[in-house]
Amino acid sequence: MSKELRFNEVKEKHFPTLEQYVPIVARVHGKHHPEFHEVHKLFDTIKAKVKEAGTVKPELEAEFAKLREITGNYKVPDDVCESYEAVYNMLAELDNAYHA
């Protein structure tokens, strides 16, 4: 399976849920986890680049590197809900698929 195909499969699987969860998690947890606002901005950038790229694999190296930095490699804080955890897990899977 090609890298591009793998990334596209994971993207198709997770983007609809991420588009729902990311803004809600930012609203609910942003006060106590201000780093999530940056996660939200980066996800919006990733979404825009994916849309702009169409069928071509977008250049997302910088965005994933920043996400790994901000999230401590997608380490879920102890005081958050399942949706927050799900967002980090889906972003980590996208990151892994992108670099697979």
Helix content: over 70%
Please indicate the percent range of residues in DSSP E strands (runs of 2 or more). under 5%
Order of helices and strands: HHHH
> DSSP helix count?
4
Structural class: mainly alpha
- Mean pLDDT, to the nearest integer, reads 94
Strand count, sense and barrel status of the largest sheet are: none
Poorly predicted ranges (pLDDT <50, ≥5 residues)? none
Number of strands: 0
Give the total of domains. Answer: 1
The first-to-last residue Cα distance is 10 Å
Rg over CA atoms:
13 Å
What is the general shape?
globular
Structure write-up:
The protein has 100 residues and is an all-alpha fold. The chain has one domain (3-99). The chain is 75% helix and 0% strand. The chain contains 4 helices and no strands. Helix 1 (3-29) packs antiparallel against helix 2. The radius of gyration is 13 Å and the shape is globular. 22% of the residues are buried.
Topology:
Layout: H1 3-29, H2 35-53, H3 61-71, H4 82-99
Helix pairs in contact: 1-2, 1-4, 2-3, 3-4
Which key terms come to mind for this protein?
100 residues; mainly alpha; 0% strand
